[in-house]
Structure formats: C-alpha cells, structure tokens
C-alpha cells in the first residue's frame, strides 16, 4: 500500500470512529499512528475521500448529509456560535467564534431560507447575500431571535 493509501485509510478509520473537529486534531491523530501529513495534503485527502465538515467535525462522505436542515438545527448553531450580526447594504455580516463560520454557513445553505441568496463562510466571518436591504434587516432580526 502506498503512503497515500495508508494515510487515507487511517483518515477514514479515525473519522468513522471518533469526533475529529479540525485538521489540527487529525494531524495529531495521524501522527499517533506514525503518519505525517501537511494541512495541504489533508485538505486534498479529505476532498478526494468525499469527507465534509459539519457542525460537530468531519463526517464521512458515505454518511448522508442532511438534505434539508430544520430551524431547530440552525437555532442550535446560531445560539452557540454566532457572536454578532451587522448589516451592510443588502448583505448581513455574521461574526462567529474562531473556526466556526462554516458550521453556520452549512446550516444556512441546507435550510434554504427564502431571504438568503447565498453565503460565503470564512474562519470567523460569514457574508450572507440577500436581494434587498429590507431582506437583510429581516434576516438579521430572525437570526437574532434564534440566538435569543
């Protein structure tokens, strides 16, 4: 077996048997097995293996991603991860805890809110496009209500 095959097999086993919240933890777990990998290599491996990152951490590609999230799932991530929301014309800019923007962005994509045209999630910031300033204001109010 090639080094790549060994590494990818180990990645599947690790993610399938435990919660792996981020790439740093994955590097650590692989090192415990005597396998070295850079973040670039891991990103490529995760993509090739069809592994995606959900709110809890990495999930194997053969585990069905939710087709449609519910408001209660969005509420959970908004309550625990959203720090602030600010209007910017027809956009809403959300600030999250470090490394958590993608979890909220993922739920926003899955719930398919009619006010949301799309979003771009970075590390701790999400840009959410809406059709109008009014839609952005309404979305801000809805997310703040979910936050509580």
UniProtKB/TrEMBL annotation:
Kindly provide the name given to this protein in its UniProt entry.
Arginine repressor
| HAMAP family cross-referenced by the UniProt entry | Arg_repressor
Q: Does the keyword Membrane apply?
A: no
Please state the gene responsible for encoding this protein.
argR
Function text:
Regulates arginine biosynthesis genes.
**Does the record carry Cytoplasm as a key word?**
yes
Q: Per the UniProt entry, what species is this protein from, by scientific name? A: Pleionea mediterranea
Q: Where are the transmembrane segments?
A: none
In which pathway does this enzyme or protein participate? Amino-acid biosynthesis; L-arginine biosynthesis [regulation]
UniProt keywords, alphabetically? Amino-acid biosynthesis, Arginine biosynthesis, Cytoplasm, DNA-binding, Repressor, Transcription, Transcription regulation
User: What range(s) does the Arginine repressor DNA-binding domain occupy?
Assistant: 3-55
């Amino acid at each position: 077996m090639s080094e790549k095959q060994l590494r990818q097999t180990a990645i599947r086993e690790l993610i399938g048997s435990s919660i792996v919240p981020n790439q740093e933890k994955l590097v650590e777990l692989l090192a415990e097995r005597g396998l070295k990998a850079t973040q670039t290599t891991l990103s490529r491996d995760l993509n090739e293996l069809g592994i995606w990152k959900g709110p809890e951490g990495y999930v194997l590609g053969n585990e069905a991603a939710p087709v449609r999230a519910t408001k209660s799932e969005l509420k959970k991530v908004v309550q625990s991860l959203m720090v602030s929301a600010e209007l910017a014309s027809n956009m809403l800019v959300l600030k999250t805890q470090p490394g958590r923007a993608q979890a909220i962005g993922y739920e926003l994509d899955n719930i398919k809110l009619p006010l949301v045209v799309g979003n771009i999630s970075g590390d701790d910031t999400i840009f959410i496009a809406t059709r109008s300033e009014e839609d952005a204001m309404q979305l801000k109010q809805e997310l703040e209500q979910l936050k509580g």
